[in-house]
């Protein structure tokens, strides 16, 4: 008869392990920013659903889905497989528009609606604005170094060298 393994030593099943992102991506700055963007967008979406400002729920839902897609795309290294799309540029444009949209709808939710869920959605929207602004600042610096070097290779490849 086999002895049961301790609870902390149990490995996830192989099917589940293939869905989880690698640990090194989760510990990277880009992985943490995309995870924070996904979580904040989802929380903001839930708050808008529960509030009187439900008309603003579409922006956090779209940003949640886009951040989640990019999280798994970067984690599974789709950016290295599909070279036709310059991933940092699309990520930069996503972050800039998300920061602007979150800032605008957060101001509207906090100033126009008086219920608690709208105020909470506005506060989480302001926090998401800061996270998206940090992400687009970092991505902008990658774009600038890419353009200064003539665009010969991607910023991720230069960092690894």
From TrEMBL:
- A cellular-component GO term for this protein: membrane
The topology of this chain with respect to the membrane is: Multi-pass membrane protein
What keywords is this UniProt entry annotated with?
Membrane, Transmembrane, Transmembrane helix
Which Pfam families has this protein been placed in? MARVEL (PF01284)
Q: Residue limits of the MARVEL domain? A: 25-144
Q: Mind telling me which PROSITE patterns this protein's record contains?
A: MARVEL
Residue spans crossing the bilayer: 33-51, 95-114, 120-140
Top-rank taxon, per record: Eukaryota
Localisation: Membrane
InterPro entries given for it?
A: Marvel (IPR008253), MARVEL-CKLF_proteins (IPR050578)
Q: What is this protein called?
A: CKLF3 protein
- The protein's organism comes out as Chordeiles acutipennis (Lesser nighthawk)
Q: What is the lineage of its organism?
A: Eukaryota, Metazoa, Chordata, Craniata, Vertebrata
